[in-house]
Amino acid sequence: MESGKRPYSSELRAGQARRTRRQIVGAAGELFEQRGFAATTIDAVAARAGVSRKTVFTSVGNKVALLHLAYDYAMAGDDEPVPVIDRPELRRIIAEPDPRRQGQMYADFVTATNGRTSKLWMALRGAAEVDQEARQLYEKWEDERRAAMRNGPIPVFVEKKALRTGLTPDTAADIMWTLIDPALYHRLVHRAGWTPERFREWLTYTIRTQILQLELSGG
Question: Which residues contact 83 (CB under 8 A, 6 or more apart)?
Answer without folding.
Answer: none
